[in-house]
Amino acid sequence: MTMLPGIALCAAIAAVAWVLQGAYVDAIVLAIVLGAVVRTVWKPGDRWLPGIRISGHFLLEVAVVLLGASVDAALIARTGPRLLGGVIVIVAVTLVLGYAAGRALGLHHRLALLVATGNAICGNSAIAAIAPVINADGDDVAASIAFTAVLGVAAVLGLPVLGRALGLTDIQYGALAGLTVYAVPQVLAATLPISAASAQIGTIVKLTRVLMLGPVVIALSLARGGKRPGLHRLIPWFVVGFVLMGVARTAGVLPAWLPAPLRTVATMLTVLSMTALGLAVDVRALARVGGRVIASVIAALAILLGSSLLLVQHSEMRVALSTGGGDAPGLNAVIRAAVLAAVNRDWEVLGIKRGFAGLLGEDDVVALTRESVRGIGHLGGTILHTTNRGNPLKYERAGITTDRSDELIANARNLGIDAVITIGGDGSLAIAQRLHEKGLHVIGVPKTIDNDVSGTVTTFGFDTAVNTAIEAVDRLHTTAESHDRVIVMEVMGRHAGFIALHTGLAASADVILIPEIPYDIDSVCEKVRERDRAGRLFSIVVVAEGAYPTGGTATASVGGVAGPLARLIQEKTGKETRWLVLGHLQRGGMPTGYDRLLATRFGGAAVRAVAAGKWGHMVALQSPRIVTIPIEQVLAQPKRVDPRSDTVLTAREMGISLGD
Ligand code: F6P
Predict the structure, then answer these.
(1) How far is the C-alpha of 57 from the C-alpha of 36, rounded, in Å?
(2) 349 — alpha (psi -120 to 50), left (phi > 0) or beta?
(3) Which are the catalytic amino acids?
(4) Which of 97, 258, 434, 603 registers the highest number of CB atoms within 10 A of its CB?
(5) Nearest CA residue ID for atom 10, ligand 1
(6) In angstroms, what is the span from residue 615 Cα to ligand 1's centroid?
(7) In sequence order, what are the residues at sequence separation of 6 or more whose Cβ sits closer than 8 angstroms to the Cβ of residue 242?
(8) Mind listing the pLDDT tens digit for each residue in 202-234?
(9) In the chain, count of helices (H) and strands (E)?
(10) How far is the CA of 101 from the centre of ligand 1 (A)?
């Protein structure tokens, strides 16, 4: 009963601090300040003291126990060994050097420890959490929290300026913010204006840093306990509670929704006990140590910032490249450009062999260096090999289909892969989108000879395929004319007629048949007869593999249309008709200059997209610029020939038959 007035007083002041808190001043700081203000104008009498005392100690210890629920060891494992290693090193360096600096500047042992821990881990909450562990004095806690908070805010405000001045990438800047800023809302305030990716990495790094509180609390309590008599006093009860909570969380005993409300309760209890500390603060004592504490906080901050900068500027990214789906001339040019752009940033590059097979243990993951990409820019194919049968979401082996995407993502994490640049058509992009939704950092590069990917003016490989097909039509012209024959040539493109249309128009075909405009066989034959009447006794028909007659429908499988079409034309016109399928000739050989350049620009842009953390985006040509667009948007609508486009219109105006 005697405790009630004091607890009620602390709760009332804490409530005011809670209401007044904002992004830059948290309730913990406000609670101390308000408590100290009250204490300056009115000294609480004996009636209040028991409650104030219990709020300042016991409630803080309960808060430490509740914080344990947020320590998820599995999360630390998922963070990745490199990032975790970096955070551990930075926290350790700041702790040790920050403590040494505090001592050198004249702080006594506990105060130096509070300042160093606060700066190394997470400011106010860390100071509050270790205060009972090292049995810190109320004035020391108040001093270290007050000055750490003020200087911490100054650091947040200066961080974007520093990031820009040093030319850090979004990812580097996000990591720097996560390593140096004290509170998650402040990390968001400093990183969200830069980019979502920056905020994402900042939050992960920050949360990982907070998790270091666990080992530090245990280490400090062991160090102190060592000097205490009796084993039962080795570790205080609340540290045992903290560890048990962490174990329960990691083992999945606590429901997933519980840590968040427990964290809020822990913060509320901390605010309450900070009010109690504020009510006991001796402002004159605070002023006496003020100068030394400020100097120590600045020293600790400088150590934190300096070591974090060293880490983020020298932490290379590990990027993996994969080529999936049917090959297209220009793949090697993308690989070359991406590898060179990445290694010139001191990043490491891996190549996943055969689509994603390399990440599923079915093929290799190889290192890609400057040497690996020497002299490959002009070569067709892909040095990484490819497959159009390796969808990790529907992986087929011996007639059984399984979803191996989680395994793929886990393997990528184990290899320390920070981002995957996947070069592929709509199929590969759909896979990329799903992997992105599952948390893999993916950047897409559009590739297909069919040119059927939305959002980009063209894909590399298309120009080469069209040029190969044009050369074929040129050759067919001379033989068709010599024999007064009709020749039907089938080109690729699946359900898009771009290759047929562009080839037919550029190579002066007489009939062009595409899936977007169903054809009438009589209309096609009429065109052949009309040419005969005009003394042009041969005709060239370019037909897309996905073309079909009016009344028919597009089918999943395409190809094999030239033969039946040629037989029908011969039957109906009486003219000798030959046919051929150009087939994979269109996918082979050297990329044209246009494709080489486009592929190279895509490769460079993909690396820039990684640096900017544009996960789930695809690089695209929106002439004259290369841009990035969300893959989701690309997949929303497939690209097809617009029958009202100027290309179709021009063909019609020139007298070319489109079969309708
Ligand atoms: O998508 C590219 C493409 O070349 C299509 O034009 C064609 O229909 C298909 O791939 C052929 O694939 P495959 O490599 O299985 O023969």
Answers:
(1) 17
(2) beta
(3) 450
(4) 603
(5) 326
(6) 28
(7) 64, 65, 67, 68, 71, 214, 217
(8) 777 887 888 888 888 888 888 876 555 444 445
(9) 26, 13
(10) 66
